[in-house]
Write a structure and sequence with these properties.
The complex is a heterodimer of chains A (424) and B (471).
Chain A (H helix, E strand, L loop, with lengths): L1 H9 L4 E17 L2 E23 L2 E11 L5 H15 L3 E3 L8 E6 L9 H14 L6 E19 L4 E17 L5 E9 L4 H19 L2 E2 L4 E8 L2 H12 L2 H4 L24 E4 L14 E5 L2 E2 L6 H7 L9 E3 L7 H4 L3 E8 L3 E2 L5 E13 L4 E5 L2 E5 H4 L4 E2 L3 E3 L3 E4 L1 E10 L2
Parallel strand pairs in A: 5-7, 9-18, 10-15, 14-22
Antiparallel strand pairs in A: 1-2, 1-6, 2-3, 3-4, 6-7, 7-8, 10-23, 11-12, 11-14, 12-13, 15-17, 16-17, 17-18, 17-19, 19-23, 20-23, 21-22
Chain B lengths: L6 H18 L4 E17 L2 E6 L5 E10 L2 E7 L4 H15 L19 E6 L6 H4 L1 H16 L5 E18 L3 E20 L2 E11 L6 H6 L1 H10 L9 E7 L1 H12 L6 H4 L20 E4 L19 E6 L2 E2 L6 H7 L7 E2 L8 E2 L3 E4 L6 H6 L3 E12 L8 E11 L2 E7 L2 E4 L2 H6 L3 E2 L4 E3 L3 E4 L2 E5 L1 E4 L2 E7 L1
Parallel strand pairs in B: 5-7, 9-16, 15-24
Antiparallel strand pairs in B: 1-2, 1-3, 1-6, 3-4, 6-7, 7-8, 9-25, 10-11, 10-15, 11-12, 13-14, 16-17, 17-18, 17-19, 19-25, 20-25, 21-24, 22-23
Helix pairs in contact in B: 1-2
Chain lengths: 424, 471
């Protein structure tokens, strides 16, 4: 880090920002119960932003060019890249913007029970946890990938920012399979920042159950509009809609008309009002701005917009960084009560997508439960849903049950009224 | 012009060889893949100009693979030096191969290591390095301005260009391979407003080469803007099964997402692909022949893969019959087949998986106008936007931006958007009744394995006529 700083100063660069990241990982790859590949990674990479101020047609502009370097490069190579970036930044210019206020901090180490253990020990514990519940006679783990990663990030700028943090994360994906009566599988990815061995077991058990239910599921009945419950990890993707629409990078070019004080669900809200808090994923964003818990939407009313320094400056709002993690309070209705009416509870999609540009959410359905409102439930598969959040957001029902995911803490499920479902 | 080799790899080759020799003293098989690449991304929109070296495209480092007691292990690192060689050897011996020592492991035969040595480079017309950042930014800024000025209903217009020049060195006991490759791709996107919804029309481009691509990008500004404006009047599609004509880009998405992922043979090893049980059987209309590999030049053309296997032209489907899948080294060892040169890594920091390269359907003999005229009541699907594989069940999950209504062989002007394709892959492929006589392919996007491991691929084919379930 000090080497990059010295080279930038040697090159006479007035304004710069460095983000240096040192990563190590232990990675295990299983097929069925057998280890198929093991890996260790020890790498470093740095991003250096070089800024150049110019005047064009009497207007003050600020240009930026980003380069990537690492410890394998010689001083001459890095200096050459820096000089090229300085030149490039002189014509890759945008309207002038100010840099974020400088931040200083000692190394912040994530408070986690993953600390103090070797990465390989953590990997063993998680693999043991996952396979400890792989005992079902019908469904089993088909394949399992585990990445235990440690990252140390330090950021410095010419204007005085000097912050650092260290994180550990356990993440990966796995597939469960059930061969009878139909041969089916369920894919799940996961991410934990604590020694959440019980959560790992729960995930595997849930996935095994999903595979078993999908194996005996019927084809989706005919097409039409119905109430749909979306739950589990799809809530993370779904609720990212509001954070995306409130990002200054959406608002500035006119993709979103959100303004602080707006009722994001419209004026005639029949169902639950949306309440969202932003939570930090890391102590600092990529510009060194401190990230902290913030009230985002209160009773449907937008309290703030977020995003990077440059666009926030253009819009005249406080630059608070881009938030990706949200917290939503529990709803008042239990999942059991939600399913007292005829509805489709989708628990597994092939690739659920929430498009924040046009508001559509859509996906093929891999497993859903159809409730007929008379106490009967049927597992179904196939078909797809295609809904618009603009059409349904005034009548949402959040579940009492809550869940904690890597970027989402909140209701386990949400009920949407009158969503188009395509079936046989 | 030929892409130049990496001075860095040349300068450090002796060190990689020294590391390899030391590993071969202990392990029956060892290999090193070293990479040195630079890739830049340029974009212009209403929000401003961005220019950066991309983290996926700019990398320098190496990955060591060792074969120990029947199984494989890998070490990824950034820096090689005389002093660090012994540290790396020690890490591999004490921390890597001992990982999970007590656990049951899959065992493999020692990989074949055919004696081969070469240094090859792809061609380009205009180097982005010589053309220069300044001219690239100026050109895409002009294109962006042209798009924004097309019509007042264009909310925003985005133009991007990205390129990667990479050099790779693969060393094993018997292999000494070097390749130098450059690709360039780009896109234009036009946005319009329909109430609160932002509608987006997107046109991608790619070439195995340099910034000669810029001229092609400029030619498609108006088409893209026109679609964005048409989307303002689009309506949701009633779900159902329709006779469809697919644009070559939509065909490419079906080739890649719906079928291609299902014949990645690491999925055969895991028992995750239905295709495993259908080799030698009709899985598509006899009109369909599908390739993967180096028979065409696009962003995934190379001379050897990330495990040192030479690239191929693999015929996956021959006149409707599934002939073979594609494989990386380890999957081929598990299945007792020959690796097809499809072992690819996101970077030297990641594991190799079986991945597609340039995947496409051969063209047929029909004329597009005859195909459209043959539709009594159906749709023309264009502008694919996303897709997801389901090799286990051959389910289709693909999305396209729009469908144009065709009645009695003519476009009615009615537009539906967005469109979800669902159904069963062989049903769709067997329903293909016409294929146009032209081949288009594009490699502008990145392909993931699940939701990670992003690699460059291309896909394409002709216009096809098929019966498809849409939602």
């Amino acid at each position: 880090m000090e080497r990059y700083k010295k080279l930038l100063e040697q090159a006479g660069i007035k304004n710069w920002f460095i983000k240096n990241k040192i990563d190590s990982s232990v990675e295990l790859f299983f097929i069925k119960k057998n280890l198929d590949m093991r890996r260790i990674k020890e790498v470093d990479n740095a991003e250096i932003a070089v800024f150049t101020d110019v005047e064009k047609d009497g207007e003050k502009k600020r240009g930026r060019a980003d380069i990537r370097v690492n410890s394998s490069m010689t001083d001459i190579e890095i200096l050459t890249k820096i000089k090229e970036a300085e030149y490039a930044a002189s014509f890759a210019t945008n309207k002038f913007f100010e840099f974020p206020k400088p931040t200083k901090s000692e190394l912040k180490v994530q408070d986690s029970d993953l600390n103090g253990l070797e990465l390989s020990e953590i990997a063993t514990k998680f693999a043991d946890a996952a396979y400890s519940v792989d005992n079902d006679k019908d469904a089993f783990i088909n394949s399992f990938e585990l990445f235990v990663e440690e990252s140390t990030v330090r950021m410095m700028s010419a204007t005085g920012t000097d912050v650092a943090y260290k994180t550990r994360v356990v993440k990966g994906e796995f597939v469960t399979q059930c061969r009878e009566p139909q041969d089916v599988e369920t894919y799940l990815d996961y991410e934990f920042d604590t020694l959440a061995l019980d959560d790992m077991k729960d995930l595997v058990e849930t996935s095994l159950k999903t595979s078993k239910d999908r194996a005996r599921a019927n084809a989706m009945p005919k097409s039409g509009k119905t109430d749909v419950i979306i739950s589990g990890r799809y809530m993370e993707e779904l609720m990212s809609f509001y954070a995306d629409r409130a990002n200054v990078s959406f608002i500035y070019p006119g993709y979103s008309n959100y303004k602080v004080g707006d009722n994001v669900q419209g004026e005639d809200v029949k169902g639950d009002k949306v309440n969202i808090k932003f939570l930090p994923l890391q102590p600092f964003n990529n510009e060194g701005i401190e990230m902290k818990e913030r009230e985002f939407i209160k009773d449907g009313e937008l309290k703030l917009v977020h995003g990077n320094q440059r666009i926030s400056y253009y819009m005249g709002v406080e630059p608070i960084g881009t938030y990706e993690k949200v917290q939503i309070p529990a709803g008042k209705v239990s999942l059991k009560e939600m399913t007292d009416r005829p509805c489709l509870h989708v628990v597994n999609f092939s690739d659920f997508q929430m498009d924040a540009l046009d508001g559509h959410f859509a996906s093929e359905i891999r497993l859903a439960y159809y409730y007929d409102g008379k106490g009967n439930v049927t597992p179904v598969t196939g078909g797809s849903i295609n809904g618009s959040i603009f059409d349904c957001q005034n009548d949402l029902t959040f579940s009492k049950e809550v869940q904690k995911l890597s970027k989402y803490v909140g209701p386990k499920a949400c009920l949407f009224k009158n969503v188009m479902v395509s079936g046989e | 012009m030929k892409v130049q080799s990496s001075e860095y790899l040349k300068a450090n080759k002796a060190l990689y060889k020294e590391l390899l020799d030391k590993l071969l003293n202990t392990y029956e098989y060892a290999s090193i893949l070293a990479a040195d690449s630079v890739g830049k991304v340029y974009s212009v929109s209403k929000s401003g100009i961005n220019m950066r070296e991309d983290d996926l495209y700019t990398q320098r480092g190496f990955v060591v693979k060792v074969y120990n007691d029947g199984s494989f292990a890998e070490y990824s690192g950034s820096k090689i030096s005389k002093e660090e060689i012994d540290v790396i050897v020690d890490t591999i011996a004490k921390r890597l191969v001992t990982l999970e020592a007590k656990r049951e492991k899959n065992t493999y035969k020692v990989p074949e290591d055919e004696k081969v040595s070469f240094s090859k480079s792809t061609d380009y017309e205009i180097s982005p390095f010589e053309f220069g950042d300044k001219k690239i930014v100026e050109r895409i800024t002009e294109i962006q301005k042209k798009g924004l000025a097309y019509d007042e209903r264009i909310l925003d217009f985005y133009c991007s260009l990205q390129f990667q020049k990479y050099s790779k060195l693969f060393l094993s006991k018997n292999k000494d391979l070097e390749q130098n490759v450059m690709w360039t791709c780009g896109a234009v996107a036009a946005m319009s407003l329909k109430g609160e919804e932002v509608k987006q029309a997107y046109t991608p481009f790619s070439v195995l080469g340099g910034v000669e691509l810029l001229d092609r990008i400029e030619e498609h500004v108006e088409d893209t803007c026109k679609v964005a404006i048409e989307l303002i009047d689009s309506v949701p599609l009633p779900p159902g099964e329709y006779d469809c004509i697919c644009s070559p880009e939509t065909t490419g998405m079906i080739v890649h997402e719906a079928f291609g992922h299902g014949v990645e043979m690491d999925m055969f090893v895991k028992d995750r692909a239905l295709a495993k049980y259908n080799v030698g059987e009709y899985v598509a209309s006899p009109l369909v022949t599908m390739h993967d590999g180096n028979a065409i030049d696009d962003t995934s053309t190379y001379f050897f893969d990330d495990e040192g296997t030479l690239s191929n032209d693999t015929i996956i489907i021959d006149k409707g019959i599934l002939v073979t899948g594609m494989s990386d080294l380890q999957s081929a060892l598990a299945l007792g087949t020959k690796p097809t040169g499809n072992g690819k890594r996101q970077s030297v920091e990641r594991k190799a998986y079986t991945r597609m390269t340039n995947t496409y359907f051969e063209p047929g003999k029909d004329k597009l106008e005859d195909m459209i005229a043959s539709i009594k009541d159906g749709l023309f699907l264009e502008m694919p936007c996303s897709g997801m594989e389901d090799p286990k069940n051959w389910g289709i999950q693909c999305m396209v931006t729009l469908a144009r209504e065709i009645k009695d062989g003519k476009f009615t002007g009615k537009i539906y958007s967005p469109i979800v394709l669902t159904g069963y892959v062989p049903d769709l492929l067997k329903s293909i009744s016409m294929m146009s006589d032209e081949l288009h392919h594009c490699g502008s996007g990145m392909c993931g394995k699940g939701y990670k491991e992003w690699v460059k691929v291309s896909d394409g084919g002709p216009y096809i006529k098929a019966r498809i379930r849409l939602g």
